[in-house]
From TrEMBL:
Organism per entry: Pseudolactococcus raffinolactis
Pfam families tied to this protein: ABC_tran
SUPFAM superfamilies: P-loop containing nucleoside triphosphate hydrolases (SSF52540)
GO molecular function terms attached to this record: ATP binding; ATP hydrolysis activity
Annotated protein name in UniProt: ATP-binding cassette domain-containing protein
Limits of the ABC transporter domain: 25-258
Amino acid sequence: MDKMIVVEHLDKTFKKTVKQPGLKAGFKSLFKPQIETFEAVKDLNFEIPKGEIFGFIGANGAGKSTTIKMLTGILTPTSGTCLINGKNPQKNRTAYVKDIGVVFGQRTQLWWDLALQETYSVLKEIYDISDSEFHKRMAFLNEVLDLNTFIKDPVRTLSLGQRMRADIAASLLHNPKVLFLDEPTIGLDVAVKDNIRKAIKQINQEEQTTILLTTHDLNDIELLCDRIFMIDRGQEIFDGSVSQLKQRFGKMHEVRFEMTQQLEVERLDYHQHFSDLKVIKDGLQVTIQFDATKVAIPDLVKFTLSRANVKDIAVKDADIEEIIRRFFRKEIENV
Protein backbone atom coordinates (compact mmCIF):
# COMPACT_ATOMS: atom_id res chain seq x y z
CA MET A 1 0.00 0.00 0.00
CA ASP A 2 1.31 3.47 -0.95
CA LYS A 3 2.52 5.57 1.96
CA MET A 4 1.12 9.07 1.51
CA ILE A 5 2.47 10.54 4.78
CA VAL A 6 5.63 9.36 6.55
CA VAL A 7 6.69 10.93 9.85
CA GLU A 8 9.94 9.83 11.49
CA HIS A 9 11.33 11.00 14.86
CA LEU A 10 9.60 14.37 14.55
CA ASP A 11 10.53 16.88 17.27
CA LYS A 12 9.72 20.52 17.81
CA THR A 13 11.26 22.59 20.61
CA PHE A 14 10.41 26.19 21.35
CA LYS A 15 12.52 28.64 23.32
CA LYS A 16 10.96 31.37 25.41
CA THR A 17 12.25 34.14 27.64
CA VAL A 18 11.04 33.91 31.23
CA LYS A 19 10.27 37.32 32.70
CA GLN A 20 10.21 37.64 36.47
CA PRO A 21 7.87 40.19 38.07
CA GLY A 22 9.24 43.50 39.28
CA LEU A 23 11.24 46.38 37.80
CA LYS A 24 14.62 45.07 38.94
CA ALA A 25 14.03 41.62 37.52
CA GLY A 26 12.74 43.13 34.28
CA PHE A 27 15.85 45.28 33.92
CA LYS A 28 18.07 42.27 34.64
CA SER A 29 16.35 40.19 31.96
CA LEU A 30 17.30 42.78 29.33
CA PHE A 31 20.99 41.95 29.77
CA LYS A 32 20.82 38.39 31.08
CA PRO A 33 17.56 36.82 29.90
CA GLN A 34 16.50 33.50 31.36
CA ILE A 35 15.71 31.12 28.50
CA GLU A 36 13.50 28.06 28.89
CA THR A 37 12.95 25.35 26.30
CA PHE A 38 9.64 23.61 25.76
CA GLU A 39 9.24 20.38 23.81
CA ALA A 40 5.89 20.65 22.04
CA VAL A 41 6.40 17.48 19.97
CA LYS A 42 8.60 14.57 21.02
CA ASP A 43 9.78 11.80 18.71
CA LEU A 44 6.56 11.24 16.76
CA ASN A 45 6.52 8.36 14.28
CA PHE A 46 3.63 7.31 12.06
CA GLU A 47 2.74 6.42 8.48
CA ILE A 48 -0.55 7.08 6.70
CA PRO A 49 -1.36 5.03 3.58
CA LYS A 50 -3.12 6.51 0.58
CA GLY A 51 -6.87 6.87 1.02
CA GLU A 52 -6.98 6.57 4.81
CA ILE A 53 -8.94 8.88 7.12
CA PHE A 54 -6.54 9.40 10.01
CA GLY A 55 -7.92 10.76 13.29
CA PHE A 56 -5.22 12.86 14.98
CA ILE A 57 -6.51 13.62 18.46
CA GLY A 58 -5.47 14.80 21.89
CA ALA A 59 -6.33 17.27 24.61
CA ASN A 60 -5.72 21.00 24.21
CA GLY A 61 -1.98 21.66 24.37
CA ALA A 62 -1.10 18.07 23.41
CA GLY A 63 0.91 19.17 20.35
CA LYS A 64 -1.63 18.57 17.57
CA SER A 65 -1.51 22.06 16.05
CA THR A 66 2.30 22.15 16.14
CA THR A 67 2.46 18.81 14.33
CA ILE A 68 -0.06 19.94 11.69
CA LYS A 69 1.93 23.13 11.11
CA MET A 70 5.07 21.07 10.49
CA LEU A 71 3.23 18.73 8.13
CA THR A 72 1.82 21.65 6.15
CA GLY A 73 5.18 23.42 5.99
CA ILE A 74 4.32 26.37 8.25
CA LEU A 75 6.84 25.35 10.92
CA THR A 76 10.25 23.72 10.53
CA PRO A 77 10.94 20.69 12.77
CA THR A 78 13.76 20.93 15.30
CA SER A 79 14.72 17.41 14.25
CA GLY A 80 13.22 14.47 12.41
CA THR A 81 11.54 14.34 9.01
CA CYS A 82 8.10 14.35 7.47
CA LEU A 83 7.35 13.46 3.86
CA ILE A 84 3.97 13.95 2.18
CA ASN A 85 3.62 12.21 -1.17
CA GLY A 86 7.40 11.95 -1.22
CA LYS A 87 7.93 15.69 -0.76
CA ASN A 88 9.48 17.56 2.15
CA PRO A 89 7.04 20.37 3.16
CA GLN A 90 9.86 22.75 4.06
CA LYS A 91 12.30 22.03 1.22
CA ASN A 92 9.81 21.49 -1.64
CA ARG A 93 7.36 24.21 -0.61
CA THR A 94 6.13 25.35 -4.05
CA ALA A 95 5.62 21.86 -5.45
CA TYR A 96 4.29 20.54 -2.15
CA VAL A 97 1.38 22.94 -1.67
CA LYS A 98 -0.18 21.71 -4.92
CA ASP A 99 -0.58 18.29 -3.29
CA ILE A 100 -2.44 19.43 -0.17
CA GLY A 101 -5.65 21.13 0.89
CA VAL A 102 -6.07 22.66 4.35
CA VAL A 103 -9.24 23.61 6.24
CA PHE A 104 -9.09 25.31 9.63
CA GLY A 105 -12.49 25.32 11.31
CA GLN A 106 -12.07 28.77 12.85
CA ARG A 107 -10.34 30.43 9.89
CA THR A 108 -11.27 30.84 6.26
CA GLN A 109 -9.35 31.14 2.99
CA LEU A 110 -12.34 32.76 1.27
CA TRP A 111 -12.50 36.44 0.27
CA TRP A 112 -15.01 38.07 2.60
CA ASP A 113 -16.64 40.54 0.16
CA LEU A 114 -16.51 38.47 -3.01
CA ALA A 115 -19.33 36.24 -4.19
CA LEU A 116 -18.39 32.63 -3.56
CA GLN A 117 -18.18 31.74 -7.26
CA GLU A 118 -15.79 34.67 -7.81
CA THR A 119 -13.61 33.39 -4.97
CA TYR A 120 -13.38 30.03 -6.73
CA SER A 121 -12.43 31.81 -9.97
CA VAL A 122 -9.56 33.56 -8.16
CA LEU A 123 -8.38 30.25 -6.69
CA LYS A 124 -8.56 28.70 -10.17
CA GLU A 125 -5.97 31.21 -11.37
CA ILE A 126 -3.79 30.80 -8.27
CA TYR A 127 -3.66 27.02 -8.73
CA ASP A 128 -3.38 27.35 -12.52
CA ILE A 129 -6.34 25.05 -13.17
CA SER A 130 -7.49 24.66 -16.76
CA ASP A 131 -11.05 25.70 -17.74
CA SER A 132 -12.15 22.14 -18.47
CA GLU A 133 -10.72 20.79 -15.20
CA PHE A 134 -12.24 23.69 -13.23
CA HIS A 135 -15.75 23.05 -14.56
CA LYS A 136 -15.37 19.33 -13.90
CA ARG A 137 -14.22 19.94 -10.31
CA MET A 138 -16.97 22.46 -9.62
CA ALA A 139 -19.60 20.04 -10.90
CA PHE A 140 -18.29 17.34 -8.54
CA LEU A 141 -18.02 19.69 -5.55
CA ASN A 142 -21.50 21.11 -6.18
CA GLU A 143 -22.88 17.59 -6.19
CA VAL A 144 -21.11 16.52 -2.99
CA LEU A 145 -21.32 19.74 -0.96
CA ASP A 146 -24.53 21.26 -2.40
CA LEU A 147 -23.05 24.70 -3.12
CA ASN A 148 -25.53 25.85 -5.78
CA THR A 149 -28.03 27.40 -3.37
CA PHE A 150 -25.51 29.99 -2.13
CA ILE A 151 -22.66 30.06 -4.68
CA LYS A 152 -23.65 33.54 -5.93
CA ASP A 153 -23.83 35.04 -2.42
CA PRO A 154 -21.01 37.12 -0.86
CA VAL A 155 -18.96 35.06 1.59
CA ARG A 156 -19.80 37.46 4.47
CA THR A 157 -23.50 36.56 4.15
CA LEU A 158 -22.98 32.79 4.48
CA SER A 159 -23.97 30.87 7.59
CA LEU A 160 -21.28 28.96 9.48
CA GLY A 161 -22.38 25.66 7.93
CA GLN A 162 -22.41 27.13 4.41
CA ARG A 163 -18.99 28.71 4.94
CA MET A 164 -17.54 25.41 6.13
CA ARG A 165 -18.82 23.61 3.04
CA ALA A 166 -17.46 26.43 0.89
CA ASP A 167 -14.05 26.20 2.62
CA ILE A 168 -13.88 22.45 2.07
CA ALA A 169 -14.70 22.97 -1.62
CA ALA A 170 -11.99 25.66 -1.89
CA SER A 171 -9.41 23.29 -0.38
CA LEU A 172 -10.37 20.57 -2.89
CA LEU A 173 -10.55 22.73 -6.01
CA HIS A 174 -7.06 21.74 -7.20
CA ASN A 175 -7.71 18.03 -6.49
CA PRO A 176 -5.13 17.59 -3.69
CA LYS A 177 -3.85 14.18 -2.73
CA VAL A 178 -3.91 15.01 1.02
CA LEU A 179 -6.54 17.00 2.91
CA PHE A 180 -5.85 18.42 6.38
CA LEU A 181 -9.06 19.09 8.30
CA ASP A 182 -8.72 20.95 11.59
CA GLU A 183 -12.03 20.93 13.53
CA PRO A 184 -14.23 20.95 10.38
CA THR A 185 -17.50 20.58 12.33
CA ILE A 186 -16.80 22.99 15.20
CA GLY A 187 -19.82 25.11 16.13
CA LEU A 188 -22.16 23.43 13.64
CA ASP A 189 -25.60 22.06 14.45
CA VAL A 190 -26.31 18.34 14.28
CA ALA A 191 -27.88 18.29 10.80
CA VAL A 192 -25.08 20.33 9.22
CA LYS A 193 -22.42 18.17 10.94
CA ASP A 194 -24.04 15.08 9.47
CA ASN A 195 -23.95 16.58 5.96
CA ILE A 196 -20.29 17.61 6.33
CA ARG A 197 -19.36 14.09 7.50
CA LYS A 198 -21.18 12.50 4.55
CA ALA A 199 -19.35 14.81 2.16
CA ILE A 200 -15.95 14.02 3.70
CA LYS A 201 -16.68 10.28 3.50
CA GLN A 202 -17.82 10.52 -0.12
CA ILE A 203 -14.77 12.54 -1.19
CA ASN A 204 -12.50 10.03 0.53
CA GLN A 205 -14.18 7.02 -1.08
CA GLU A 206 -14.60 8.40 -4.60
CA GLU A 207 -11.24 10.15 -4.95
CA GLN A 208 -9.08 8.15 -2.52
CA THR A 209 -8.06 11.44 -0.89
CA THR A 210 -5.92 10.88 2.21
CA ILE A 211 -7.45 12.86 5.08
CA LEU A 212 -5.82 13.87 8.36
CA LEU A 213 -8.55 14.96 10.74
CA THR A 214 -8.14 16.74 14.06
CA THR A 215 -11.31 17.14 16.09
CA HIS A 216 -12.76 17.33 19.58
CA ASP A 217 -16.08 15.98 18.30
CA LEU A 218 -15.89 12.31 19.13
CA ASN A 219 -18.72 11.49 16.74
CA ASP A 220 -16.42 12.65 13.92
CA ILE A 221 -13.86 10.11 15.09
CA GLU A 222 -16.30 7.23 15.39
CA LEU A 223 -18.13 7.89 12.11
CA LEU A 224 -15.20 8.90 9.89
CA CYS A 225 -11.82 7.60 11.03
CA ASP A 226 -10.21 4.36 9.88
CA ARG A 227 -7.54 4.85 12.50
CA ILE A 228 -6.87 6.95 15.60
CA PHE A 229 -3.51 8.42 16.56
CA MET A 230 -3.65 9.96 20.03
CA ILE A 231 -0.96 12.19 21.52
CA ASP A 232 -0.45 13.76 24.92
CA ARG A 233 2.32 16.21 25.88
CA GLY A 234 3.72 15.84 22.38
CA GLN A 235 4.09 12.05 22.56
CA GLU A 236 2.17 9.13 21.08
CA ILE A 237 -0.05 7.30 23.56
CA PHE A 238 -2.25 5.25 21.20
CA ASP A 239 -2.22 4.19 17.55
CA GLY A 240 -4.97 1.89 16.31
CA SER A 241 -8.56 1.55 15.14
CA VAL A 242 -11.68 2.68 16.99
CA SER A 243 -12.57 -0.98 17.59
CA GLN A 244 -9.13 -1.64 19.13
CA LEU A 245 -9.58 1.34 21.43
CA LYS A 246 -12.97 0.01 22.48
CA GLN A 247 -11.60 -3.49 23.09
CA ARG A 248 -8.86 -2.09 25.28
CA PHE A 249 -10.77 0.59 27.19
CA GLY A 250 -14.40 0.02 26.29
CA LYS A 251 -15.48 -2.33 29.06
CA MET A 252 -17.43 0.41 30.83
CA HIS A 253 -21.19 -0.12 30.75
CA GLU A 254 -24.15 1.74 32.11
CA VAL A 255 -27.44 0.40 33.47
CA ARG A 256 -30.33 2.74 34.26
CA PHE A 257 -33.23 1.63 36.46
CA GLU A 258 -36.47 3.54 36.93
CA MET A 259 -38.24 2.74 40.20
CA THR A 260 -41.86 3.13 41.27
CA GLN A 261 -41.17 4.70 44.69
CA GLN A 262 -38.51 6.98 46.18
CA LEU A 263 -38.18 4.72 49.23
CA GLU A 264 -36.95 1.90 47.01
CA VAL A 265 -34.20 4.12 45.59
CA GLU A 266 -32.83 4.80 49.09
CA ARG A 267 -32.85 1.07 49.89
CA LEU A 268 -30.42 0.21 47.11
CA ASP A 269 -26.99 -0.10 48.78
CA TYR A 270 -24.89 -1.21 45.78
CA HIS A 271 -21.52 -0.34 47.32
CA GLN A 272 -21.97 -2.91 50.10
CA HIS A 273 -22.32 -5.72 47.56
CA PHE A 274 -20.30 -4.56 44.53
CA SER A 275 -16.98 -2.78 44.00
CA ASP A 276 -15.65 -0.53 41.21
CA LEU A 277 -18.92 1.07 40.22
CA LYS A 278 -20.43 4.54 40.25
CA VAL A 279 -24.03 5.07 41.38
CA ILE A 280 -26.00 8.17 40.39
CA LYS A 281 -29.44 8.64 42.00
CA ASP A 282 -31.76 11.21 40.42
CA GLY A 283 -35.38 11.12 41.60
CA LEU A 284 -36.79 7.72 40.73
CA GLN A 285 -33.88 6.93 38.39
CA VAL A 286 -30.73 5.06 39.43
CA THR A 287 -27.82 5.00 36.97
CA ILE A 288 -24.92 2.61 37.54
CA GLN A 289 -21.64 2.90 35.63
CA PHE A 290 -19.33 -0.10 35.97
CA ASP A 291 -16.52 -2.15 34.46
CA ALA A 292 -18.08 -5.16 32.75
CA THR A 293 -14.94 -7.22 33.41
CA LYS A 294 -15.49 -6.83 37.18
CA VAL A 295 -19.26 -6.63 37.56
CA ALA A 296 -21.75 -8.80 35.67
CA ILE A 297 -24.92 -7.15 34.33
CA PRO A 298 -27.17 -10.10 35.40
CA ASP A 299 -25.88 -9.78 38.99
CA LEU A 300 -26.71 -6.07 39.06
CA VAL A 301 -30.19 -6.63 37.63
CA LYS A 302 -30.90 -9.54 40.00
CA PHE A 303 -29.77 -7.52 43.03
CA THR A 304 -31.91 -4.52 42.04
CA LEU A 305 -35.05 -6.57 41.31
CA SER A 306 -34.75 -8.31 44.68
CA ARG A 307 -34.93 -4.99 46.53
CA ALA A 308 -37.20 -2.77 44.42
CA ASN A 309 -40.09 -2.67 41.99
CA VAL A 310 -38.50 -1.65 38.72
CA LYS A 311 -40.57 0.18 36.13
CA ASP A 312 -37.96 0.27 33.36
CA ILE A 313 -34.40 -0.92 32.61
CA ALA A 314 -31.97 0.45 30.00
CA VAL A 315 -28.47 -0.92 29.26
CA LYS A 316 -25.88 1.15 27.40
CA ASP A 317 -22.34 0.36 26.21
CA ALA A 318 -19.58 2.91 26.74
CA ASP A 319 -19.36 5.50 23.97
CA ILE A 320 -16.14 6.71 22.43
CA GLU A 321 -16.12 9.87 24.57
CA GLU A 322 -16.11 7.92 27.83
CA ILE A 323 -13.48 5.53 26.49
CA ILE A 324 -11.07 8.34 25.58
CA ARG A 325 -11.73 10.05 28.91
CA ARG A 326 -10.78 6.83 30.72
CA PHE A 327 -7.73 6.42 28.48
CA PHE A 328 -6.39 9.86 29.40
CA ARG A 329 -7.21 9.28 33.07
CA LYS A 330 -5.17 6.07 33.06
CA GLU A 331 -2.25 7.73 31.26
CA ILE A 332 -2.18 10.55 33.82
CA GLU A 333 -2.28 8.06 36.71
CA ASN A 334 0.71 6.22 35.22
CA VAL A 335 2.87 9.35 34.91
